[in-house]
Amino acid sequence: MKTVSGLFDTYEQASEAVRALKAAGIPDDDVSMVASNAEGRYKVSDTEGAAEGAGTGAGLGAAVGGASGLLTGLGLMAIPGVGPVVAAGWLAATAAGAAAGAVAGGAVGGIIGALTDSGVPEEDAHVYAEGVRRGGTLVTARVADSDVAEAEAILTRSNWVDVNARRSAYRAEGWSRFDENLDPYSPTQIEEQRARYANR
Question: Domain named General stress protein 17M-like: which ranges (predicted)?
């Protein structure tokens, strides 16, 4: 098995990629998503443990599939330096296991560690973490070696971010690697980031 990863500037693009991966026969258990929730759009009901709408946002069920069931095992995590995220699938579970108490307190080392342990180059893992910090959504899929090209083609068609180009753009701003000691981006900063790459 190999891990194919894609960073997306919008949740909608990432959702499209997840649907396409599943349509190609990749099982739920092998697909994962980690999305910025800095704007607090998604909430979990404390009394029912189920997703419910919050203000103008959507409930977690709607966020990660609702009736169509994009992914299972959805939850909220806090990642130092990133802030709150909505996460589902094997990567979230692995990261939570790697960082004791991650569902409550989180640790980006858990996510970077989970990615690198599954074969993602560390320098790419740092770009992915920074991308989520800046409001993006990370999709990962574990696929057979023979399915890597198809999975990458699916992610590309869904408008994934070219990780090398994004690394260069970040470095042009003075960035070198993800730093969990930095403050998470504010909703305003995230909107600025999304606007910057909207026409990509």
Answer: 6-71
Rounded CA gap, 193 and 191, in Å? 5
Identify which of 126, 75, 133 has the alpha carbon closest to the alpha carbon of residue 104: 75
For 48-126, strand residue ranges (E) read 51-52, 75-79, 83-89
Could you give the CA distance from residue 111 to residue 80 in angstroms, rounded to a whole number?
11
Best CA proximity match to 114, nearest among 101, 129, 133, 130: 129
C-alpha 186: how far from chain center: 17
Q: What is the model's pTM?
A: 0.81
Three-class SS of residue 48?
Answer: coil
* pLDDT tens, residue by residue, 4-36: 999 999 888 999 999 999 999 999 889 999 998
Structure confidence by residue, pLDDT tens digits, 157-176: 999 999 999 999 999 999 99
